Amino acid sequence: MINILKFLTIGLGHCGGKIADDFKKAAIDKKGMIMDVCAINTDGADLATHTNIPENNKLLIGSGKGAAKNWEEGYEAALQNETNIKAFISRMLTPDVDIILLTLGEGGGTGSGVAPVVAETIKELGRTCVAIVTIPFETESVKSKVNAAVGIDMLYRSEGTNAIICIENDKLTAYYPDKLLTEAYEKVNEITVSTFLNLIDLANLPSKADRIDESELKSIFKYPGFATLANFRTQANLVEDVAATLRRSWNGSLFAEINPASAAGVIFGIEGPTHLFTTTQVDAIRRTFHEILAGKDVMLGIYPSEHLRWASYIGILTGLDIPRKIHGLLDKAKAEYQQHEKTIEAKIRSKREGLGFSLRTPTMRERFTQPTTHRKLEKPFFKSVSTTETLHLDLSREVPKVLKAIEQYKGETLTHEELLNLIQNGTDIEDEKSIATVILELQNLGFLAEVRKNVYRIV
Known about the structure:
Order of helices and strands: EHEHEHHEHEHEHHHEHEHEEHHHEHHEE
Mean pLDDT: 84
CATH topology of the largest domain: Rossmann fold
CATH superfamily of the largest domain: Tubulin/FtsZ, GTPase domain
Largest sheet: 10 strands, mixed
Number of strands: 13
Structural class: alpha/beta
Strand order of the largest sheet: 3-2-1-4-5-6-7-10-8-9
Number of domains: 2
Shape: elongated
Strand content: 15-25%
Distance between the termini: 111 Å
């Protein structure tokens, strides 16, 4: 009896729901597997567009109007609906499910915020999952980058997530320059789905050489960390050396570029016409894997077929280090967020200060009771200062400057601090002893009158 591999795909948000919908569409007539799909969303209108997902396999949480592209709103919606989410997943998660996939876009609010809560729920139910996530374009907004950075970090730390597979949106331009964006997204989903489906095909395909089986396919995701899918196909007459082709095309996919040497587990199926699999060629393939992945868990399937006109390989690498793309995303998200915060703070300060419009000239007291950038005095300003004390001060030069600075405020009464601010702002005199000497001289000349202690009227 042939065992049937069973997947449960949980689509989160707009992007994740679309991938899940495409998984179901592709798997409907697929032999050797069962694909159950469900979707969780904060947007009711978007949830309704996934026509391949049965209505009772959809869960709407939050306001029903979306998460405003804000991971915090998605996260809060999930926390407030934890009980409903757990009951929903419990109903979908039958004992015979072999692999649980979470699909989501890491730039939006729903996928980024809801995924960590769903992953923890899966852990509480005694299982783990594999997350397939899309990484936003570098040209997207700071909000998208922050959503992605926060979401991936929380998923990575969750014990409910065994592996994270990243799809780079930035590669769409290089791979599909002339396609509509919606068509390019569909191609990405198609490649993701076909990689899993083709591996299942190989697991059920007999081979006279080495082969992989379903138990190996199920066990490959036991290694925690990042993961990637490898999916390459070309005309057989263009391939002379399968091992060399493998090396050249390793990172040539829509998935985030990785360091294959950091993988803990690898499963690969290589298919092509018989003449490509001589003893020497197969040995070279094995040596290629050994050089890169010595001491790692490598499962290799060789599938020669006489009449094939193309050569292909399909694989999964798990337990990988953090991809460079993710490091770059985290750095850019932080830098752009900090710059955005500075911009907002400047706008708030500008609004608080107003437009600077007034129909009257402020009084002396109004002007000098405002905060000043000059240092505050730590002791009373005035003390007994002898005019004979050597201060190296030219009163004949400094007194006229001070008179000019205070002449427009004749008749006003100032405290010593207000007078200090006026002189410091209106002249280049800053030394306290020098200012005290000038004020004393102005009293002697009759331009200042001390009406009470440390309070003066400008005469």
